[in-house]
Amino acid sequence: MHSSSLSIAARTLCRTQPAISTMIGNLEKELGLTLFERHKGRLTPTPEAYFLLEEADTIIERLTRTTQLMEEVKNLTRGKMRIACMPAAAMFFMPHLIAKFVKDRPDVDVTMMMRSSSMVQDWVSSQQYDLGYCERPKYRDAYDVELIPVKIVCAVHKDHPLANKKVITPQDLHNIPLASLYSQHAMTELLKRTFDDYNATYYPRFELLNYISAFEFVENNLCCCLCEKLSAASYKLYKSGMGNVVFIPFYPTLTFDHAIITPSHKPMSQLVKAFKESITTYMEEFIQD
């Protein structure tokens, strides 16, 4: 139909003319329609042939487009990701990571929702989201877990007497007001045990849901705060390095376990796998001193 000649069509398709004639005959037999009128060795397309040509061109165009799209998916330049994230990481870390990941991927769409760690775990368990970032979760068969230990540091006001120390210990914080996560939190319980081991009094003057909120109290020199380095890095980014809070290493070394969780019973796309692998690498860059 495109070449207007059986011989040209044969050369284009790398077939013989008899083979092309047979293919046309078989197609007409299968459809129960006459596609070409034969007259003195010439083929004249019927209206049915023009209709079939239009439909075939549409199908071929769609197949070509689908092939191109799948090639983009394979090359991680097209697709969708649904990410659920706890507040501590959703404020700065995760948006910065997503922006970096999709910068050269204009056809990658992302949904990121901020919720508590327990809600993140529920969403990933129910396969509503492709990936979750949360505090260390309890074991569930519904998701796989990759832990990311983040070191604990001490946040103090730059004019606080402890601000000049190279390392802060439980004895240094004996009976000093602290901003802390709520009393039942695993991190708070770990700190209490650690202070007990060093015969120091743990005094949580302010109990909060996250460390980002705690920095306002430290800014006003009302307390100190033992926090993980991701929140510390977020504060530095927010304040552009001009804040009143400084962060000092804490001894003994303690870690706050973050976790990447993904649905156990749902295969990850190649795009989500690549993003998941980038989290740990970017974490090291984000929290570096």
TrEMBL record:
One of its GO terms (molecular function) is sequence-specific DNA binding. Pfam families: HTH_1, LysR_substrate. Residues 1-46 form the HTH lysR-type domain. InterPro entries: LysR_HTH_N, LysR_subst-bd, WH-like_DNA-bd_sf, WH_DNA-bd_sf. One of its GO terms (biological process) is positive regulation of gene expression. Keywords: DNA-binding, Transcription, Transcription regulation. Belongs to the LysR transcriptional regulatory family. This is LysR family transcriptional regulator. It comes from Vibrio eleionomae.
